[in-house]
Each structure stands twice: as C-alpha cells, then as structure tokens.
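Reopening this one. Same input as before:
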Amino acid sequence: MAITAKQVAELRAKTGCGMMECKKALTETDGNVEEAIKVLRERGLATAAKKADRIAAEGIVDILREGDVAAMIEVNAETDFVAKNDLFLEFVKGCLRTILACRPADVEALKACKFDGTDVTVADALVEKIATIKENITIRRFLVAEGKMNTYIHGHGTTGVIVTFATDDATAEGAAFAEMSKNVALQVAAMNCEFVNRDAVPAARLEEEKGIIASQIKNDPKNASKPDAIIEKMAVGKLGKFFEQVCLADQAYVKDDSMNVAKYVESVAKEVGAPITLVNFYRYEKGEGLQKREENFAEEIASLIK
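Same output, byte for byte:
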C-alpha cells in the first residue's frame, strides 16, 4: 500500500515523531494511523511529543570554529545531568557542523537542514534524541561570526563568547594576538557588557540614560537654579560612567585596571607593530531569560517514586 504525504503529516502531528519514522510505522501497519501510533509508542519515539511542554532551561552553550568562521549555539535540556550526556553533546556538535555547512537563517531553517552526515533533517534528529534521552530538548538560538577571532567557553558550556577583530593574517596567527584576544574573551564572559563600543549604543538608549542623569542632577538642590542647557551639558559629561559599565571598549581591563579594554588592545597592537581593531563580541549565557523549573527536594523524590 502506498503511503501518502497526508498520512505521514497526520501521524507526525499526533506523535511529534520524525517523518521517516512515521513513514516506516505507517508502512508496517498498512496505513493504519492508530496502529502506527501504537508502534511508535512501543519504540519509545512518540514520547517526544509528550515532553514538548516541559521546561528545558538547562543544557549547554557550545562553539565550533573553522578558521575565520565560528558558530555558537545554545541547546537546552531539562536537567544538567542530560546536558553532560555524550549523546546530547554529540547532537550539539552535529548541529554546529550543520550550521557551518548550511548557513541557515534561523532555528526553523536549521531544523529543515539535513543533519550533518545523515539523510534526516535536524528536526527529525532532534525528535529521535528526545525519544532516546527521554527529556525535552530544544534548539534555542545560534549565530555565525566571521573575522580574526578568539572564542571561550566557561565551565561546562555555561557561557560562550566569540570576540572578533580586524587585523592582518600574520598578526592574527601570532602568540601576542592569541593571548590578547583570549583575555578580551575572558573579560566579556566575566563582565557581561552590552555593546562593543560607544558607536554601538542605540540613540534611544543614550537619550534615555541622559534623561535619567539630567533628572538626578536637577533633583540636587544646589543645581535648582541652573538653566536646562547647563543641566544637559552636565548630563553629557556624566555619560562616561555609563559607557564604562555597558561598553566593552570602555570597561576597565580586568587584569590591569589602569587602562580600559580599548587601550589594552592598542598596547598589544603597538607591541607587535600592526593595527588591531576590536570589531565585535557575541555572548551566550545558558538559560538566560528562560523560566526555570522549580521543584523542592521532597517533590522531586515523590515524582521519581511515581
């Protein structure tokens, strides 16, 4: 009996299983959807759909670099235990290889790509991993960065950082650049800045901060008689502190606070006798902004017993 695309789609909608698995199950059951569901459940594959609404805020941030190109991804799971599972870790690496090979635009486009080294899509590979590991797993986000760079992963994938620079090939291959770029990546991981430099701060954010500072100045009784033009100039003058907090280039360099990060990069450029410019940084922190699962110990034990 020929299996139609409509039957496969119906079975996928009911089970959340991969297209190929659905087609196999339908073929084995002569197109009987209910029997196919039973087959998939017996194989443990249909469990993926049941797990889709579980909170997945653990997981890992990982990076794969190939020359002047690097991909960074965050893949979430329900527990830290699963995040250390070899099957999970290899799935994450496979996603990174797929990203570098296919350059998808977003997560949905990534899911439609053929998973690295296989004939199945990333979406189907994900469903299979959920069924095997028996936890909800989600591909949350990824990015691709290009340029002379260095990368850093903190802990077991808690935080990932990519920092890019503009310089020549010879300089980028030198030990001084490697040490400097690694130090800047460590700074990004530790200090969690928002923007690479002052030019990257949106005008609206700058106006908002200037307005807050101006209000603070006006609220000081000794400034009550000062005209608005003077207050604004004072506010602009105080923006330096704001830049030091949110801009990587303006932050005090953590290993030598006598200079900021931009001056540190300049000092290394002077040392090697070649221009080096800090271009951008990318930082992922595992689970940031995600709802965390909250269970007390007694409830966790009770759930395990059940």
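So the earlier flakiness isn't reproducible anymore. For the record, The chain has 15 helices and six strands.
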